[in-house]
Amino acid sequence: MTTGFWLTNQTPNTVLSALNRNYHPACFRCTGCGICLDGVPFALDKESQVYCMPDYHDRFAPRCYRCQKPILPDENTGETVRIVALDNNYHIECYSCEGCGLKLTDEGDACCYPLGKHLLCERCHIHWRRSGAEAPISDL
Q1: Residues 40-88: tens digit of each pLDDT
Q2: Cα 45 from Cα 105, distance rounded (Å)
Q3: Domain count across the chain
Q4: Could you read off the pLDDT of 4-38 as tens digits, one per residue?
Q5: Looking at per-residue confidence, does 90 or 132 come out higher?
Q6: Is residue 80 domain-shared with residue 130, that is, in the same domain?
Q7: Is pLDDT larger for residue 93 or for residue 2?
Q8: 7, 39 in Cβ contact below 8 A?
Q9: Calpha distance 98→81 (Å, rounded)
Q10: Which helix (H) or strand (E) covers residue 43, if one does?
Q11: Which of 114, 121, 117, 84 is nearest to 99 (CA)?
Q12: Cβ atoms 31, 49 nearer than 8 A
């Protein structure tokens, strides 16, 4: 995976050189949506197919298990921050108790207490286990 490329705007009679090939500036296009990539940041997949950054992230970024949206790099740092729990990826803001909605952390009363494949806070975990419920209970 290679990311972070962009090309400068070219004059009409120039040839654009990218990835060891020459293109008319208007012919260098995103594999996904087809937009012209002249002057636009782009990325490559494993097969060296070229994508605009929105299409690249939509196709290849890890998806949040809770909201199913791609987990994107931070605009300022370029780092992708995610939480992995029960072999699933989560946005930080989506990592919450399925019973009461409490935002889960790795410390204190907001620690995650999984039960089966469900993310629960300690209170919901205890209540759910005692009740023998099949799904998180939200009316505590």
Answers
A1: 899 999 998 999 999 999 999 999 999 999 999 988 888 899 999 999 9
A2: 33
A3: 3
A4: 554 555 455 676 777 777 788 788 899 999 999 98
A5: 90
A6: no
A7: 93
A8: yes
A9: 21
A10: strand 42-44
A11: 121
A12: yes
Say if residue 136's pLDDT is above 60.
Answer: no
The single-letter code of the amino acid at 35 is I
Residue 98 pLDDT grade (very low, low, confident, very high; cuts 50, 70, 90): very high
CA angle centred on 139, ends 134 and 140, rounded to 5°: 95
Residues 47 and 23 in one domain: yes
- Do 8 and 56 lie in one domain? The reply is yes
* Residue 75 and residue 44 share a domain: no
Please give the residue range of the domain that contains residue 29.
2-60
For residues 27 and 68, membership in a common domain is answered with: no
Based on the fold, state whether residues 90 and 101 are members of the same structural domain.
no
75 and 112 co-located in one domain? no
Distance CA 111, CA 45 (A): 37
Looking at the fold, whether 88 and 136 belong to one and the same domain comes out as: no
In which element (H, E) is residue 83 found?
strand 83-85
**Residue 139 corresponds to which tokens in the numbers above?**
């009316």
* Closest by Cα among 5, 30, 26, 7 to 17: 7
CATH code: domain of residue 27: 2.10.110.10
